[in-house]
Amino acid sequence: MARKIVILTGAGISAESGLGTFRDAQGLWSQHRIEDVATPEGFARDPDLVHRFYSARRIQAAAAQPNAAHHALARLEAEWPGEVVIVTQNVDALHEAAGARQVLHMHGTLAGALCAACGHRWPATPEMTPTTPCPACNRAAARPDVVWFGEIPYFMEEILTHLGEADLFAAIGTSGQVYPAAAFVQEAAAQGAQTVELNLERSEISRAFESRRFGPATEVVPAWVEDLLAGR
Ligand code: BJW
């Protein structure tokens, strides 16, 4: 029977599309404190700063193009005889832009708006502000539909089911510093999956993987996909 592949992606896969990672030297956290822009408390303290941070990223992400790594994963999904599921921590839409269809955005998307007052969801406008009204309750409580620290990631039940069914688990371009995603490798391995890390360099959790491939995502991901499709 064809094997099931579950792929976790992080900011590193979109780095060569021009989108910033979080923890690298020039990353987003070198310009902003995590607790100011990626927590509900930070949003409550200064919604204007948080909206400006996300509006700038939304506009930048909308102009970005998928790179060879996104295209290679879409090709894998199209050509692999078994199932391929992409679980992404990224809030950009570059997997979908490359043609991938089974993509779970566990940390939400920049394209979505969420009402902090009534929970209504709608498509975000490129720039949102603290006065953007919720179309359902009309309160000025619009926030980006993303998952901040202390909040529960999306699709967890579905993701745990996929990890339990995986024959192969790959993590691409993620530092392994944020849970629960950082624990997916153990979860998949405990249920019998082979595990591989693809990253620019060793991550915090490299030792948890059976095998590793280091280099830029635009090089290592297409080569890995080529090997998988060739049965190597
Ligand atoms: C390349 C490359 C190239 C570069 N090619 N590679 C203590 C212990 C354990 C857990 C906790 C704890 N205290 C608190 C927690 C929980 C907390 C947590 O993990 N905190 C840590 C700081 C310890 N987690 C949470 O709060 C989460 N919720 C939660 O746990 O709920 C409980 C629960 C879970 C499950 C079920 C039920 C209940 C929520 C976490 C939300 C994270 N949100 C953010 C913001 C999202 C919106 C946005 O985009 O702004 O998500 S933070 C940020 O980090 C973002 C990312 O998705 C996430 C991960 O970052 P990522 O993608 O790994 O990026 P980087 O920059 O860290 O790494 C880039 C990598 O790419 C590097 O390795 C580079 O080498 C590589 N790279 N260029 C290939 N060209």
Task: Set out the fold topology.
Elements lengths: L4 E5 L2 H4 L12 H4 L2 H4 L2 H6 L1 H17 L4 H12 L4 E5 L5 H4 L5 E3 L2 E8 L5 E3 L18 E5 L9 H10 L2 E5 L11 H7 L3 E6 L11 E4 L2 H13 L3
Parallel strand pairs: 1-2, 1-7, 2-3, 7-8, 8-9
Antiparallel strand pairs: 4-5, 4-6
Helix pairs in contact: 6-10
Ligand BJW binds next to helix 1.
Summarize this structure briefly:
The protein has 232 residues and is of the alpha/beta class. It is built from ten helices and nine strands.
Explain the overall architecture.
- This protein is 35% helix and 19% strand.
- It is globular and about 55 Å long.
- A hairpin with a 5-residue loop joins β4 (108-115) and β5 (121-123).
- The strands form two sheets. It has a six-stranded parallel β-sheet with strand order 3-2-1-7-8-9, sandwiched between helices. The chain has a three-stranded antiparallel β-sheet with strand order 5-4-6.
- With 232 residues, it is α/β, with parallel strands linked by helices.
- The longest helix is centred in the N-terminal third of the chain and has 17 residues, at 47-63.
- It has helices at residues 12-15, 28-31, 34-37, 40-45, 47-63, 68-79, 94-97, 156-165, 184-190, 217-229; strands at 5-9, 84-88, 103-105, 108-115, 121-123, 142-146, 168-172, 194-199, 211-214.
- α6 packs parallel to α10 (217-229).
- The chain folds into two domains: 1-19 and 66-107 and 153-232, 3-Layer(aba) Sandwich (Rossmann fold), CATH 3.40.50.1220; 20-63 and 110-146, SIR2/SIRT2 'Small Domain', CATH 3.30.1600.
- The mean pLDDT is 97.
- Bound molecules: ligand BJW.
- Ligand BJW binds at residues 10-12, 15-16, 21-24, 27, 38, 89, 91, 107, 146-153, 156, 173-175, 177-180, 199-201, 203, 216-217.
- The site of ligand BJW has 36 residues, from α1.
